[in-house]
Design goal:
Blueprint: H1 2-8, H2 13-45, H3 50-99, H4 102-108, H5 110-135, H6 137-152, H7 154-201, H8 203-208, H9 212-237, H10 240-265, H11 270-311, H12 327-331, E1 358-365, E2 375-382, E3 387-392, H13 398-403, E4 413-418, E5 421-422, H14 428-434, E6 435-438, E7 447-448, H15 449-453, H16 462-471, H17 475-480, E8 488-489, H18 498-510, E9 516-520, H19 528-541, E10 554-558, H20 562-565, E11 570-575, E12 578-583, H21 585-591, H22 593-602, H23 605-624, H24 648-653
Parallel strand pairs: 3-10, 3-11, 6-9, 9-10
Antiparallel strand pairs: 1-2, 1-4, 4-5, 7-8, 11-12
Helix pairs in contact: 2-3, 2-5, 2-6, 2-11, 3-5, 5-7, 5-11, 6-7, 6-11, 7-9, 7-10, 7-11, 10-11, 16-18, 21-22, 21-23
């Protein structure tokens, strides 16, 4: 809490001075009130002097109005300070979250970050407001009441000295047991947020599989768990009020008993005894409020620690100190490559490093705590204007591989270069302007089609937007909309079909003339005709120099469809994070068993060509070994009965739904 105060309170220092100062003035009038009442009783009520009673009554009214004025000023200062600091904390927290790399986002988790930026910041705001309004008032009122009471009579002051520590011990015991529960409550609130988010975002899937009751049970269990913790805190806190008021009332009884005796002997007046009772009440009530402040500040302390954890988290991906790359200089001499540029080939040697649009050299990446690399020693070279296809089973590392290009993650070993420069040397803003990524899940935000398309270039004219829509095969349905580019988009793009959302996200990636476009399985909702037209249009862009700095557009396509990658200049076959095959469609068909298996699962045998049949026959003969005596020769070496099999994980991942659609 102190760290947040030191970091964000500077702009609101005057509010933190004026607010408590006015609250002290209010407390001063509160401390004078029992003395005025005592004078009213002794000089007016006892002697039945009505004018004197009225005079003191008017004085009390004036004091109350002045105190109210100071209270209103303090309330305003508290509101300005708490809301202002809360806004600043939330803004800085949101900025910090947007600076985090994917590794930190994976570690914190989306539900936890949402809770921190909403509930946790609200707890801090409440603590700041109560701190300005109450943190000075109640301790000062308690100490002032005790001092005033002791000034009236030292003998009765002994009752204060006994009652106050007794209540303090009770509060200390209860609060010490409550503090751990407050931290648990925030963590369990994260769990409820996670289940709620999953249930709302996956509502259609839950209904499709009739899992409503299961999700209700999950939510009920999480809610009951959090409720049990809150009830446990409530049980402990419920001890406070009865014990406090018991001690307070016993103290009042003791004061009346001892004070009555002193009044009879003339040592005290009736008004002084009443003042003593008022001070006793004020002191013990102040202790109750201080205990409530302890609860609030304990919650706020736990929340502030969670907020600070995000604010102090240094992103693992940083571009501090990176100078802008001269893209225009890199573009000189670059032109579309006439044929594939493969790692290890003569064309892919060191002499061509300057013209490589994309190069990976021994690139490795492992998630935090993982036992093995998600990407293991990947080597890829791609010239400007070429197309790279990445194919493999689910979980083979395709998306992780391409996430290294825009530096969503940093390699743990090796290097990734874009336009001949290591991605760790690029300013992140410039790198992600050069490299445009279309993620697996089509993501649109509320607004209009125009506002979504202009993410990469806020000043993009309509002709560029329409050109991107034409290339993404989205122009036709956008033109049919009544408002065209200004047609509304609901949150998540829910008012458009899956295929329309994918085409709009592809168009958004093409606006702003990127040098490298990455399509991460982003055409899965498109029919094969539209998918083929999309790939032709993007391939056409690769033969021009309309990209950033006049560099021909280089494309990376991640897919599980053979039809989507078969025309790529270079195809990488992934399995368990490793590139197990690299080359053109024909080369892989003849040499890569895993690629053969993928093709066999999606294409008809006639499409695979003679080379595939001969290769499969040779593998079948080798697998069969020496012919056994008496074996039927007609059952050996038949290539049509042989298919090289993937392991269970990859085999299950290959979709059989594309078999008919895979025909070209």
């Amino acid at each position: 809490m102190l760290k947040l105060f030191q970091r964000f309170a500077g702009a609101y220092r005057r509010y933190f001075i004026i607010g408590p100062a006015t609250k002290l003035l209010e407390v001063f009038f509160d401390l004078l009130t029992p003395l005025v009442i005592a004078r009213m009783i002794d000089e007016g009520v006892t002697s039945r002097d009505l004018p004197e009673v009225i005079r003191y009554g008017i004085l009390l009214l004036v004091m109350a109005l002045v105190g109210l004025g100071f209270t209103l000023i303090c309330q305003k200062m508290a509101a300005l300070a708490s809301q202002g600091m809360g806004t600043d904390i939330r803004r800085e927290l949101y900025r910090s979250i947007n600076r985090l790399s994917h590794a930190e986002l994976d570690r914190f988790g989306t539900p936890s970050l949402i809770t921190r930026i909403t509930n946790d910041v609200n707890q801090v705001q409440l603590a700041i407001a109560l701190g300005v309004r109450q943190l000075i008032r109640w301790p000062f009122l308690a100490v002032g009441s005790m001092a005033a009471a002791l000034l009236i009579d030292l003998k009765l002051g002994v009752i204060f000295l006994v009652s106050t520590p007794l209540i303090g011990v009770v509060f200390w015991v209860v609060m010490a047991r409550c503090v751990p529960y407050f931290r648990q409550m925030q963590q369990k609130l994260d769990r409820i947020a996670l289940i709620t988010r999953e249930g709302l975002s996956g509502a259609r899937v839950i209904r499709a599989f009739v899992r409503e009751e299961h999700e209700r049970e999950r939510f009920r269990a999480a809610a009951y768990d959090q409720a049990e913790t809150a009830i446990a805190v409530g049980r402990l806190s419920s001890v406070l009020n009865p014990v406090t008021f018991l001690v307070m009332n016993l103290g009042v009884c003791a004061i009346l008993w001892a004070g009555g005796i002193q009044v009879n002997v003339g040592e005290l007046t009736q008004g002084e005894v009443m003042a003593f009772v008022n001070y006793m009440t004020q002191t013990l009530l102040s202790i109750v409020y201080v205990a409530n402040l302890v609860v609030v500040f304990t919650k706020a302390s736990a929340s502030a620690a969670r907020v600070n954890e995000v604010l102090e988290c240094e992103p693992s991906v940083s571009d501090e100190g990176n100078a802008p790359v001269d893209v225009a200089r890199l573009a000189q001499g670059m032109r579309p490559a006439p044929r594939p540029l493969l790692q290890g080939s003569a064309e892919g040697g060191q002499g061509d490093a300057a013209v490589c649009a994309l190069r990976m050299t021994g690139a490795c990446f492992a998630f935090e705590g993982a036992a093995a690399n998600a990407v293991d020693h990947a080597d890829i070279v791609l010239a400007p204007g070429q197309t790279l296809g990445v194919i493999g089973g689910t979980g083979s590392g395709k998306s992780t591989l391409i996430s290294l290009i825009p530096r969503l993650y940093d390699v743990t070993e090796g290097a990734v270069e874009v336009l001949g420069t290591d991605v760790r040397l690029w300013p992140l803003r410039q790198l992600r302007q050069i490299v445009s990524l279309v993620p697996q899940k089509a993501s649109l935000v509320s607004g209009t089609i125009r506002s979504n398309l202009c993410w990469r270039d806020a000043e993009a004219p309509d002709d560029k937007l329409w050109r991107a829509l034409e290339c993404a095969q989205a122009a036709e349905f956008v033109r049919k909309l009544p408002q065209g580019l200004d047609s509304p988009v609901e949150a998540g793009g829910k008012n458009y079909s899956g295929g329309q959302r994918q085409r709009l996200t592809i168009a958004r990636a093409l606006v702003g003339s990127p040098a490298v476009v990455i399509l991460d399985d982003s055409a899965s909702a498109l029919d094969f005709k539209t998918d083929a037209a999309l790939r032709r249009a993007i391939r056409g862009l690769g033969q021009t120099s309309d990209a950033a700095g006049g560099i021909p557009l280089t494309t990376v396509i991640v897919s599980q469809r053979v039809s989507s990658v078969r025309d790529a200049d270079v195809i990488c076959v992934m399995r368990r994070g490793k590139i197990v095959g690299q080359g053109t469609h024909e080369e892989l068909l003849a040499e890569c068993p895993i690629y053969q298996e993928i093709c066999l699962s999606q294409l008809k045998r006639e499409e695979l060509g003679a080379s595939m049949g001969a290769k499969a026959g040779a593998q079948a003969k080798d697998a069969a070994g020496p012919e056994r005596p008496g074996a039927d020769p007609s059952r050996s070496g038949r290539s049509e009965d042989v298919a090289v099999r993937l392991d269970g994980a990859d085999a299950c991942a290959m979709s059989r739904e594309d078999e008919k659609g895979g025909l070209r």
